[in-house]
Amino acid sequence: MSKKHPIISVTGSSGAGTSTVKTTFDAIFRREGVKAASIEGDAFHRYDRAQMKTELQKRMAEGDYTFSHFSYDANELGELERVFREYGETGNGLKRHYVHDDEEAEKFGVPPGHFTAWTAFQEESDLLFYEGLHGAVVNDQVNLAALADLKIGVVPVINLEWIQKIHRDKASRGYTTEAVTDTILRRMHAYVHCICPQFSETDINFQRVPVVDTSNPFIARWIPTADESLLVIRFKNPRGIDFQYLTSMIHDSWMTRANSLVVPGGKMDLAMQLIFTPMIQRLVDESRKQ
Ligand SMILES: Nc1ncnc2c1ncn2[C@@H]1O[C@H](COP(=O)(O)OP(=O)(O)OP(=O)(O)O)[C@@H](O)[C@H]1O
Ligand SMILES: O=C(CO)[C@H](O)[C@H](O)COP(=O)(O)O
């Protein structure tokens, strides 16, 4: 935690929608005149695509079938912790990109499956924004949750998460349904042990729930739309959250528990704007006073 250089960490599994949520944050940052330095979780993978394939084969030959991109040791979480810590102390840090597809290859000048070089943050910023797989990990080696000032979980119910992952990986990353299904299966152990525990560390979780049948996510022809889903928003600590204001501003929303709100899927962006704008203002006001 750093009052001077705050960190916002948006955490979710692959395909959960963390990149999509970033567009809402970018809109708030723009409107509120907040300068954010952004980093992506995939930049902290330990291996490039070819190295990962080799490492996977090696582990499987040794009888380890649990290793995947979700595993702690497939990622440089110590490096991520160092970036969080350095940013909190100095407002600086290092970033790079993991290039997934041809479009990103064109943008970054590096072939798919490779990393760009590490570079220091170019400009001064008011806060650091992380989105990725491991932004609230607490294990015996790192404590990322302790270093982030606002932690957000993006967690569609699992059928929906799989549909999103399958559709995105097929449409933009050139994978087949079978290849994505294999990846989902291979990652399940680490999903349970490395991804899920973070959602007890996060301050607010956003869980999209479809209200159409997703019983067989592997044949879904499209991702359930905003109108075909609800959003459960759960606050770890509801103290200070003005639920009356939120339910009056978000049409058709209601409370299901003392710390949980449900809003129509189409109100996700509005709900995030209403919830996060005052939180971001508070973080930035505090930091400017230091
Ligand atoms: N609220 C939503 N409504 C409908 N579709 C969504 C929503 N959020 C995400 N998606 C879709 O799900 C897919 C995955 O989303 P996104 O790329 O944001 O995931 P991600 O968590 O960043 O994944 P990764 O970490 O693997 O890059 C995309 O096709 C995106 O359009
Ligand atoms: O999105 C992901 C994790 O968040 C990808 O699955 C991971 O970055 C590996 O990518 P690829 O299989 O394209 O090399």
Report on the structure:
- The chain is an alpha/beta fold and 290 residues long.
- The chain has a single domain (7-289), classed as 3-Layer(aba) Sandwich (Rossmann fold), CATH 3.40.50.
- Helix content is 39%, strand content 17%.
- The protein contains 9 helices and 10 strands.
- A hairpin with a 2-residue loop joins strand 9 and strand 10 (260-264).
- The relative contact order is 0.17.
- The model has no long low-confidence stretch (mean pLDDT 97).
- The site of ribulose-5-phosphate has 10 residues, from loops.
N→C terminal distance: 14 Å
Distinct ligands: adenosine-5'-triphosphate, ribulose-5-phosphate
Radius of gyration: 19 Å
CATH class: Alpha Beta
Low-confidence sequence ranges? none
Looking at the overall shape, the CATH architecture is: 3-Layer(aba) Sandwich
CATH superfamily membership? P-loop containing nucleotide triphosphate hydrolases
Main beta-sheet strand count, sense and barrel state: 8 strands, mixed
Shape assignment? globular
Helix content: 25-40%
Order of helices and strands: EHEHHEHEEEHHHEEHEEH
Organism: Brevirhabdus pacifica
Catalytic activity: D-ribulose 5-phosphate + ATP = D-ribulose 1,5-bisphosphate + ADP + H(+)
InterPro entries: P-loop_NTPase, PRK, PRK/URK
Protein name: Phosphoribulokinase
Core attributes:
single chain, alpha/beta, Rossmann fold, eight-stranded mixed β-sheet, 10 strands, 39% helix, 17% strand, binds adenosine-5'-triphosphate, P-loop_NTPase, EC 2.7.1.19, PRK/URK
